[in-house]
Design a protein that fits this description.
Helix content: 55-70%
Number of domains: 1
Order of helices and strands: HHHHHEEHH
Structural class: mainly alpha
Low-confidence stretches: none
Largest sheet: 2 strands, antiparallel
Shape: globular
Number of strands: 2
Length: 164
């Protein structure tokens, strides 16, 4: 069974994640053909996990918990980091990205693509820009950032869900 290896989350949470994971992988949906929807659903699953393990209601609290505490997701991803770092290396090529909040001129960079926390922080900025309407489906760089990030998250979720 999916997530059967972990004691980090309760059975109710596992059952909910199995349903969302099913949607992510359902053949009729073919969600992976749309990188925008793929990314959004992958982030939603990852965010649900972050909320569950951190019990935080803020993105900064959830991500801070993830970065600073051992957790099953990070453990599973790091065991296969060599196979995932190609995605992060590709993301680094598109670095930096601008923080698209109004009145912000900040740039978020992926300096060390071999660092999971930096990779997640970079993807989080892409998520913020997308979810708050600052990504353009017709822009080639935006498309690639979302596409690569979604593929990376999907692979991470697969590792985490299956416990491989």
């Amino acid at each position: 069974m999916i997530l059967s290896y972990t004691k980090e989350v309760d059975q109710n949470f596992k059952e909910r994640m199995v349903l969302w994971y099913g949607k992510l992988n359902h053949l009729k949906l073919q969600i992976w053909k749309d990188p925008w929807l793929n990314f959004m659903l992958c982030w939603m699953i990852f965010d649900a996990y972050l909320t569950e393990i951190s019990q935080s209601g803020t993105d900064s609290g959830k991500l801070g918990y993830f970065y600073n505490n051992p957790n099953d997701f990070k453990t599973k991803v790091l065991t296969r980091w060599d196979s995932l770092s190609g995605y992060s290396a590709k993301l680094k090529e598109y670095s930096p990205v601008r923080d698209m909040r109004p009145n912000s001129n900040e740039q978020v960079s992926l300096v060390d693509h071999k660092d999971l926390n930096q990779t997640i922080a970079f993807i989080y900025q892409i998520r913020c820009n997308l979810f708050h309407g600052a990504k353009n489906p017709k822009n080639g760089k935006d498309y690639e950032l979302v596409n690569i990030s979604g593929k990376f998250l999907r692979e991470c979720i697969n590792l985490w869900m299956k416990g491989e």
